[in-house]
Amino acid sequence: MPPAKPHSSPSQYGRIAALLDPPASATEIAPDPAPAGLGAYEAVAYRLVDPAGTATVYVFDNYDAASQAERTLAARSVGPGIARTTINGGLLLRVTVAVDDEDSVTFGSAMISRFAGAE
After folding, report:
1. Does residue 2 belong to any structural domain of this protein?
2. Residue 106 is part of a domain; what is its CATH number?
3. 10-48 pLDDT, tens per residue?
4. Is the link from the previous residue into 51 a cis peptide, with omega within 30 of 0?
5. Does 84 fall in a domain?
6. Inter-residue contact 42 to 30 (CB < 8 Å)
7. Do the domain assignments include residue 5?
8. What is the mean pLDDT of the chain?
9. Predicted confidence (pLDDT) per residue in 38-87, tens digit
């Protein structure tokens, strides 16, 4: 079943899906932190099963707003895991994975690279 569409617009959802390309095993979850706490209009988040982790895309007006939120997220702890972020226009991707799972770290890095450079 495809993930639910963000409320911004079908074209924005298409862009998110193309950039993120979540694996078929991913399930949609509530974004954490919530979009409003970062000044985002909305977000779509996935729990990644194999390899394990989470991926969240926040939707902002522009790059500057996404960049400010990226700095805010960088100051937050993710417990025993690691978090990486990247920005593509007004979209901010945050991927979190377990630090001791090499497959998850590799997959998370690939997801970040694909999101930052795709289109």
Report:
1. no
2. 3.40.1000
3. 557 778 878 887 878 889 999 999 999 999 999 999 998
4. yes
5. yes
6. no
7. no
8. 83
9. 999 999 999 988 778 899 999 999 999 999 999 999 888 777 788 899 99
Beta strands in the chain (DSSP E): 27-29, 42-48, 53-59, 81-88, 91-98
The pLDDT of residue 6 is above 70: no
Beta pairing class for 27-29 and 91-98: unpaired
Domain count, the chain: 1
- What span, in angstroms and rounded, lies between the C-alpha atoms of 59 and 16? 9
Tell me the three state secondary structure of residue 106: helix
Phi, psi (degrees; rounded to nearest 5) at 95: -115, 130
18 contacts 8 by C-beta, under 8 angstroms: no
CA distance 73 to 20: 19
Q: Write out the residue range of the structural domain in which residue 103 sits.
A: 10-117
pLDDT, one tens digit per residue, over 61-72 is 999 999 999 999
Give yes or no for a contact between 70 and 78, defined as CB atoms under 8 angstroms apart: no
Whether 4 is covered by a domain: the verdict is no
Q: Which two tokens stand for residue 38?
A: 């970062």
